[in-house]
Amino acid sequence: MRKTKALMGTLLAIILILTAAVIYLLFNDQHRHTEKEVILHQFNKADVARLNEMVARHQEGKGDFLLLVTQTGEGGHIIHDVHSDGKTLTWTIDNTRDAFAGPEDRKKHVYMCKNIQVRQNSERYVYTVDQCEGHGDTFLPIFRLRKDSIEG
């Protein structure tokens, strides 16, 4: 009887420790992103920081993903779906939802690349990809942000 109680107590302690460990991991994952941190559409300083974080994570060999929703001058939307596994970056530009694009312009462009970097000058941030399938070592400017349009 004493052995059964000791065994039950030990099992209960193990279950409590494992439960605490699972709860800790679920709530303290430093790379868990909320919807606001994964879907970028305001392109303020926080969005630029998050985009730069994605670039850094890819360069460190870590995966990440973002959804960038930009607005055209006419008010249509272009969606950039960006996935990285730390080795290959897939950047899909989807303007099929741009109501103001002509039928021949409504399409998806998919770039599968090895590298991404951000270049900046006094006027803008330019995100470039290279070593892309079908494009060789050419640096492709894939996304641009004017610095004077970025707010707090």
Q: Estimate the helix proportion, in percent.
A: 25-40%
Number of domains: 2
Structural class, from secondary structure content? alpha+beta
Strand order of the largest sheet: 1-2-3-4-5-6-7
Q: Count the beta strands.
A: 7
SSE arrangement, N to C? HHEHEEEEEE
Mean pLDDT: 85
Structure in a nutshell:
By secondary structure, this protein is an alpha+beta fold. 30% of the residues lie in helices and 35% in strands.
Strands, helices and their partners?
Elements: H1 2-27, H2 35-38, E1 39-40, H3 45-59, E2 64-71, E3 77-84, E4 89-94, E5 108-120, E6 124-132, E7 140-146
Parallel strand pairs: 1-2
Antiparallel strand pairs: 2-3, 3-4, 4-5, 5-6, 6-7
Word description of this protein:
The structure is a single chain. It is built from three helices and seven strands; from the N terminus they run H-H-E-H-E-E-E-E-E-E. It is of the alpha+beta class. The protein has two domains: 1-30; 35-149, no CATH class. Strands 1-2-3-4-5-6-7 form a seven-stranded mixed β-sheet. The mean pLDDT is 85.
